[in-house]
Amino acid sequence: MERINTYLAKHLWAQMLLSVLAASVLIMVVFPGRSFLSVVVRTAVMSAGGIAVVAAARRKEKRASGGSTDRMVALDRKLRKGDVPTDPEEREAMRGLVEQRLHRTRHRVLAQVGLTVLFGAVVAATAVTAGPRQTVGLTVLSVVFLGWCFFYGNRNHRRLLTMRRALSADTAARRT
């Protein structure tokens, strides 16, 4: 599993391809009747904005961690495992990455509330305008997706805060 995570972290195009394919399959299950190719093309076109946002965030993370994809992936692995870097240069890169990610997630609670309201509105609109199959499908998707987002988002935020404390505590100990 670690090899898959590393591969996907290094190759953003693979993440995007898998996301578009997974979304296309989900659309085909909930709204059957269209050709798979047309759904894939439409999903890819509609995902272009999200892909641009992810690419921009990746560029900022690479810059914060020292400019290399391999270094960013290595730091991300250490962050997920909770390993505090010992090398001073690597510590500074980790500090930059952690601060960049914490800055990016500063409005996460508001975003979670907004996402919940948005998904609730989509499910309600689907219940009014579509059949029970679509309503049940989107309800299940919403509950699973929001649960996943909240669980992993909060877990990653705790990891970032823990790493920031570890890096600052060690820095303060070195100063004295």
Shape by Cα distribution: elongated
* Total of DSSP H or I helical runs spanning 4+ residues: 8
Counted beta strands? 0
Amino- and carboxy-terminal Cα gap:
42 Å
**Rg for CA atoms:** 20 Å
Q: Which strand-content bin applies to the residues? A: under 5%
By secondary-structure content and strand pairing, the structural class works out as mainly alpha
Query: Biggest β-sheet: count, sense, barrel?
Result: none
List the uncertain runs: none
Mean pLDDT: 89
Percent in helix: over 70%
The SSE string, one letter per element, is HHHHHHHH
Q: Regarding quaternary structure, how should these chains be classified?
A: single chain
Write the layout of secondary structure elements.
Blueprint: H1 2-10, H2 12-30, H3 36-46, H4 48-64, H5 69-81, H6 88-104, H7 108-129, H8 132-175
Helix pairs in contact: 1-2, 2-3, 4-6, 5-6, 6-8, 7-8
Structure, described:
With 176 residues, this protein is mainly α. The protein has a domain at 89-175. It has 8 helices and no strands. It has helices spanning 2-10, 12-30, 36-46, 48-64, 69-81, 88-104, 108-129, 132-175. The longest helix is centred in the C-terminal third of the chain and has 44 residues, at 132-175. The radius of gyration is 20 Å and the shape is elongated. The mean pLDDT is 89.
